[in-house]
Design goal:
Helices cover 53% and strands 19% of the residues. The chain has 230 residues and is an alpha+beta fold. The protein is elongated.
Length: 230
């Protein structure tokens, strides 16, 4: 039985896309068309149509073309790819939220007749901001919401430590700890940009050492400590 082929214009109308988009995806190797010796126009089988539908869904989720091609070629983990994309979006939202806050602050200064170029953030203000980050970070870590933790990493740390590596390290660190008991935060005078989050568990304590660069986290280390006997 001869398989039914759909013209490119028909496919575009069905899926709400454009012929230019389909040609681009074909050039990138994530969709295919069928060569018809009786026509110079692109045509698509039903199987190819289903593949295009999947690609369009993945693009609507924000996955880059390169990531989609990798998923297709290497049969990658779609859930992990979506998780990583969500982490990047959350990181972007966090950054943009901070930018909006700074812009609002600048406008308020101008409205009061102040100087936006004058130093205005004291060490105490910076410490308070970092403490708030530490609070949200540790809450998310305890809840297993590692994407939120990752959103506080700056660009340098995210490039050096991909999300999947951070998540794997965190989960491996927490495997032997037992039930959660309590939390503490400790700053050191000789390392003003470093904070230790002490998470006490039933079997062993976990140190999270965070090193800040401005308002974001530039470094993180996870280690164990022995809780004090009560």
């Amino acid at each position: 039985m001869e398989q039914k082929l759909l013209d490119i214009n028909t496919v575009c109308r069905m899926l709400g896309t454009t012929s230019r988009t389909l040609r681009f995806y074909e050039e990138k190797g994530i969709v295919q068309s069928t060569v018809n010796p009786f026509s110079t126009r692109r045509q698509y089988s039903m199987e190819q149509l289903e593949q295009i539908k999947k690609v369009l869904v993945l693009r609507s989720l924000g996955l880059p073309v390169a990531e989609i091609r990798k998923l297709q070629q290497e049969k990658g983990d779609l859930g992990q790819a979506i998780l990583e994309r969500r982490a990047k979006v959350m990181a972007s939202i966090t950054t943009k939220t901070r930018e909006i806050a700074l812009l609002n602050e600048a406008l308020q200064i101008l409205e009061r007749g102040g100087d936006v170029f004058a130093p205005r953030k004291s060490a105490e203000m910076q410490r308070k901001e970092r403490l708030k980050t530490v609070e949200v970070f540790s809450d998310a870590f305890l809840a297993g919401e590692l994407e939120i933790c990752y959103s506080f990493f700056d660009d340098v740390l995210q490039k050096a430590l991909p999300f999947e590596d951070f998540a794997a390290g965190a989960k491996e660190t927490l495997r032997p700890v037992g039930n959660y008991v309590s939390r503490g935060v400790r700053w050191t005078g000789y390392l003003p940009d470093t904070v230790y989050i002490e998470l006490e568990y039933e079997n062993v304590g976990v140190y999270l050492q965070l090193v800040f660069k401005e308002h974001l986290i530039r470094g993180i280390w996870m280690s164990y400590y022995e809780p004090k006997e009560k």
